[in-house]
Amino acid sequence: MQISSLTEILTIHGYNFQFDQGKYKVKLGGIANKVTVSWDLSRECLNYSYGQILTPSLTMLWAMISMYNITNGELVSAVLFSGLTILGSLVTIITEIKVTELKRILTPAIPFQ
Question: Which segments cross the bilayer (predicted)?
Answer without folding.
Answer: 53-70, 76-95
